[in-house]
Each structure stands twice: as C-alpha cells, then as structure tokens.
Amino acid sequence: MNRLVLWFHRLGSPPYFYRFAGRWLPWLYALALLTGAIGFYGGLVIAPADYQQGDSFRILYVHVPCAWMSLFAYAFMAGNGFVALVWRIKLAELLAMASAPIGAAFTFVTLVTGSIWGKPTWGTWWTWDARLTSELVLLFLYFGVIGLHQAIEDLRQAARAAAFLALVGVVNLPIIHYSVVWWNTLHQAQTVNLLGESKIDARMLWPLLVLAFATHVYFFASVLARTRAALLALESGKAWVRALVAPATEPAHG
Amino acid sequence: MAEFLRMHGYAGYVWSAYAVFVVVLLADALAPLLARRQTLAALRGRLRREAARGARTGNPS
C-alpha cells in the first residue's frame, strides 16, 4: 500500500491519533501565536489608515479572518460529518463535533466585530442585510449541531445525528458567500480575490493574509486539542487509556 | 504611542473588536485543556478505587 494511505489508516487508530495530536499541538499553537502577532502588528501599525474609514478599517483584520474561518470550520465539520455518516469512522465523528464550537466561536466574533465596525461606518450596529442575516443563521446552525450532539445520550449516535444536521446546513454556505452579489445592501462586496486581482493596497493586504494563515493554524490546533480530549472520554474504558494514566495510580498499591 | 492608542478617535471600536477576538479565542483554547484534565482526573480516581477494591478482596482486577 501507498505510504501516505498507510499513514492515514494509522491516524484513524485512537492511541496513534492521541500521540500524534499531542506531539503537534504545542508547535501549532506556537505558530498560530507567532503569525497572529505578526499579522496584528502589520494590521495595527504598518498598514496605513483607510482614506474613507480612517483607523476604524483596522477592525478588518479580526473581522475578515474570522468570517473566513466561520465558513471554513463549517465546511470542515460537514466534510467530516459526511465521512462519519458514510464510513462510520469514529475519528471523523469526533473531528466533526470538535469543529462545531470553534466555528461557533469564529462566527460569534465575526458578528460582534462586524457590529462594532458597522456603527462608525454605516451608522448602525445591526441591519437585516443578507450577509449579516445569513451569517447569523450560520451561528444558529452551529448551535443546533452542538445542541443536538449534547441532547443524545449515546455519544456515537449523537455525533451521527448532529453530522446529518451539519450536512443539511451546508446549503447556507453559498448563500453567505454570494449574498453580497445577489442582494445589494449595506455590506460591501468582496475585495480580496484568491484567483484574480485584489482591490486592496499591498500594505493593507499582507497582514490580512498572514492573519488568515494564523487563524487556520489555530483552528487545526483547537480541533486536534478538542478531538484529543473527546477521544480520551470516549475510550476511557480501553486499555490504551488505562495505560496512559496507570503510572500515576501504580504507587497507590505498589 | 498615545496617538496609536487613540486610533484617531476610533479607539473604542478598534480595541473592543480586538478584545472580543482575543477573549473568545482564549476561552476556546482553554476549554479542551480543562476537559482533558477533568477526564484524566476522573479516570485516575476510578482506577484507584478499582485497585483498592481489588486489594481488599485479594483479587487484582
């Protein structure tokens, strides 16, 4: 078998994943913190003030990466949910459920920072604009997934039911993305373009891209940490988990 | 420095937005750490009780 495929299979084994995640976590957190600090410095200090919005535009550097992550986390959750439903892989269930609270956190920050940005630029904290409303629906979808997962006693059944809800909610992702194209209201259209040219000064753009990278790294760190914790709880009766805590309990009767 | 902190009059908006970001993500980072610690503590307690029961009956589990 291909070595990559073999490694992927090994990663599906709980004790291997637990060790793997434990090894990578400190590096991922450190990388996210470092790039996040660089991005903040670039966004708050180096980037020039916007000619229309002045310094209030700097909210962009927390608002936009979080908005991107709110969609990315949902796609990641739904993707793993799909794998969990079709192939019944335990780890995919855990990964899907681990991304829900992180995605909800990013969506919450997106809505709050957007509201804070809206007051000085639009003159209002909130409007029922298509982009804002669909993003609010995304937050409720995350809450639905988390709530459904917690409402069902059996952890594996709970994960599969919540994964199904997550898959249904995917319909909201293109609505959020194209909302600024389909409906013309207060929220500005897309300025940063992955494939074409971005309509933004380079000195303003690079901190945004660095922060997008930092939030992605943070997302994966948080997903690994949460999956690791959930794996421990789910497999607490298994021999490998007992072996993990055994050294601490041995002196009691040894 | 003072001018930087004032953000040309937008200080309240800019700094509160950044504060929300930092506080929420910090809470998100701490949650799995606490959850894992709780699971491990509960597990250690369970194993210790099992070991104690095994020692009493002379029948290691």
Task: Identify the biggest protein-protein contact and residues per side.
Answer: A-B, 44 and 33 residues
Distance N terminus to C terminus of chain A? Answer: 45 Å
Summed over residues and divided by their number, the pLDDT of chain A gives a mean of: 91
Number of helices of chain A: 9
Largest sheet of chain B: none
- Beta content of chain B comes to under 5%
The SSE order of chain B reads HH
Low-confidence parts of chain B lasting 5 or more residues at pLDDT below 50? Answer: none
Name the features.
heterodimer, A: 254 residues, mainly alpha, B: 61 residues
Structural summary, described in words:
The complex is a heterodimer of chains A (254) and B (61). Chain A has 254 residues and is mainly alpha-helical. Chain A has helices spanning 3-11, 14-46, 60-87, 90-122, 130-151, 155-168, 172-182, 202-234, 239-253. Chain A has one domain (31-45, 62-231). In chain A, helix 3 packs across helix 6. The longest helix of chain A has 33 residues, at 14-46. The relative contact order of chain A is 0.16. By secondary structure, chain B is mainly α. Chain B has a domain at 22-54. Chain B is 85% helix and 0% strand. The termini of chain B are far apart. The model of chain B has no long low-confidence stretch (mean pLDDT 89). At the A-B interface, helix 2, helix 3, helix 4, helix 8 and helix 9 of A face helix 2 of B.
Compact overview of the structure:
The complex is a heterodimer of chains A (254) and B (61). With 254 residues, chain A is mostly helical.
Chart the SSEs and their pairings.
The complex is a heterodimer of chains A (254) and B (61).
Chain A: H1 3-11, H2 14-46, H3 60-87, H4 90-122, H5 130-151, H6 155-168, H7 172-182, H8 202-234, H9 239-253
Helix pairs in contact in A: 2-8, 3-4, 3-6, 3-8, 4-5, 4-6, 4-8, 5-6, 5-7
Chain B: H1 2-6, H2 11-57
